[in-house]
Amino acid sequence: MLDSTPSTVADRVALKINPAKTCQPVGAVYAALGVHGCLPHSHGSQGCCAYHRSHLTRHFKEPVMASTSSFTEGSSVFGGMANLTQAFSTIFEMYDPDIVAVHTTCLSEVIGDDIPTIISKAREEGRIPEGKVVVHCNTPSFVGSHVTGFSAMVKGFVKYLSENTGTRSTAINILPGWVEPSDMTELKRMVAAFGLPSIMLPDTSSVLDAPATGEHAFFPKGGTTLPEIKAMGDAKATLSLGTWASLEAATLLETSCGVPFQELDLPIGLAATDRFIESLRGLAGVDVPAQIEDERGRLVDVISDMHQYLSGRKVAIYGDPDHVIALTEFCRDMDMKPVHVLTGSVGNAFETRIKDLLADSVPDANVKAQGDLFLLHQWIKNEPVDLLLGTTYGKFIGRAEDIPLVRVGWPILDRVGHSYFPTVGYLGSLRLAVEIISAIQERQDRDAPDHAFELVL
Ligand code: SF4
User: Fold this and answer.
1) Could you tell me which residues come within 8 angstroms of residue 124 by beta carbon, excluding any fewer than 6 positions away?
2) Residue 76 C-alpha to ligand 1 middle, in angstroms?
3) Pick the CATH number of 24-161 from 3.30.450.20, 3.30.420.40, 3.40.50.1980, 3.60.110.10
4) Which of 103, 106, 221, 336 has the most crowded CB, counting CB atoms within 10 A?
5) Is 269 left (phi over 0), alpha (psi -120 to 50) or beta?
6) 48 lines ligand 1 (CB under 6 A)
7) Would you state the CATH architecture of domain 294-451?
8) 106 lines ligand 1 (CB under 6 A)
9) Whose CA is nearest to atom 5 of ligand 1?
10) What per-residue confidence (pLDDT) applies to 126?
């Protein structure tokens, strides 16, 4: 399918081919689904909302609910106020959510709809019932990516709802970043092991990995509750996991509520998880639990035992910046060579960070923010790799160049399991390391001549 991709890299500024990102509202919807009793609302046309919902559904294999302002030609000319105020009446009458999380789209941003004013008007007109909550964020998709949309929505919840009552609690806030429901469960387990009470925002566990019960729950049992989001303003600290997805909300919690934060990478891999654990240890004031020490030891054991399969293997890593940074460090620490590293999201800081991580081991690595998969493919044509590490979209490159792909990040549209088995923490990193090792061993078996086809690897 991609057999015609040329190896000669030409300068491109105004054209993306096979983007390594999608649009901001997708992230806003995902974040809103992690709040209990919340209905994400797309202020734009039906097509946008249908796309965002279907993309999330394809990844999670779960129904994703969201409402839309259903713009028509008239709204495009006169603005979307009438549509949104009517939508509030319909939403609360038909679905009765506790909270509606409004995000904008390209069209409503170009029109310039003033969402806070529309919300105020709807409240004055009695379209938003007493006790119900509406929050919003701006997610124009001609800038940013699904990650910045996620960040904007999390920040929106904090801005509207978190309060400093003047009494500090013992709880810590966990901003988990854009990770799977399984990762959120694992993060909570690790925090609880230190005896720390915590509030996680958002929390899509028991929402997008909910079990089949025979009954459809329009609002599943999981998700951060409104009182919890409010109480985040009284927490003693915030752990912000993933700069691109979480730092904005963490910063706002500090400036508006006085909650200090620690900025950390997603805890994927040995070193990043070590830093996460060290932060928990400092906040809890206790030793690292033996159970967590053992999990670390198992990860170290597998990486050490399998070093011969990992050492020097060239890998191309692509996807969301927070994931790619953590994965690059993990691969580097397993003695692999991340020779091509790319994200579709913006940020010079991304390129600087990756180059710092690889300064000693792969100083001439190709690194790009705001890149696309066409460029990644061209890089690979010029310097082949042993492994692709990233989203489902890389499978076309893998097929064209006969390279194994380990799926990690978002979206994964053609496999299951990511919602149920974590990638974060020592256990999640162990799972990921095993997937990487297995992919390399599978290839070794496939390519081995008869005399080198071994029973024991
Ligand atoms: S890029 Fe803009 S127009 Fe397209 S689906 Fe996203 S929000 Fe809608």
Assistant:
1) none
2) 14
3) 3.40.50.1980
4) 103
5) left
6) yes
7) 3-Layer(aba) Sandwich (3.40)
8) yes
9) 48
10) 97
Q: Which of 110, 143, 300, 434 is catalytic?
A: 110
CA distance 68 to 42: 5
Q: Are 322 and 242 in contact (CB under 8 A)?
A: yes
Measured CA to CA, the distance from residue 220 to residue 230 in angstroms comes to 20
Ligand 1 atom 8: residue of nearest CA:
48
The number of helices, as runs of H, and strands, as runs of E, in the chain is 18, 13
Contacts of 46 (CB under 8 A, 6+ apart): 68, 70, 71
CA atoms within 13 A on the CB side of 371: 26
pLDDT confidence of residue 4 = 86
Instruction: Outline where 162-242 has alpha helix (H).
Output: 181-193, 226-231
Asked whether the domain spanning 294-451 has the same topology as the one spanning 24-161, the reply is yes
Closest ligand 1 atom to Cα of 105: 7
Burial class (CB within 10 angstroms; exposed 0-12, middle 13-18, buried 19+) of 364:
exposed
Q: Is the entire prediction scored with pTM above 0.85?
A: yes
Q: Can you tell me which atom of ligand 1 is nearest the CA of 25? A: 7
Distance CA(342)–CA(376), nearest Å, equals: 7
Does 141 sit in the ligand 1 pocket, CB within 6 Å?
Answer: yes
Residues of the chain with pLDDT under 70: none
Domain residue spans in the chain?
24-161, 172-266+275-284, 294-451
Distance CA 168, CA 174 (A): 16
Residue 110 annotated in active site: yes
Report the amino acid identity of residue 312. Answer: G
- Which residue has its alpha carbon closest to ligand 1 atom 3? 106
Closest residue CA from atom 2 of ligand 1: 106
Is residue 187 lining ligand 1, measured as CB closer than 6 Å? Answer: no
Tell me which architecture the domain covering 172-266+275-284 has in CATH: 3-Layer(aba) Sandwich (3.40)
Rounded CA-CA distance 111/105 in Å is: 10
**Which is catalytic among the residues 29, 64, 100, 106?**
106
CB of 317 closer than 6 A to ligand 1?
A: no
Q: Is the CB of 175 under 6 A from ligand 1?
A: no
* 29 is known as an active-site residue: no
Structure tokens given for 364: 């001439």
**Residue 368 near residue 377, CB atoms below 8 Å:** no
Enumerate the β-bridge partners of residue 368. Answer: 342
> Would you mind telling me the total number of residues written for the chain in this entry?
457
* Cβ of residue 25 lying under 6 Å from some atom of ligand 1: yes
Model pLDDT, residue 11: 87
Contact 25, 39 (CB under 8 A): no
Q: Ligand 1: distance of its center to the CA of 412 in Å? A: 20
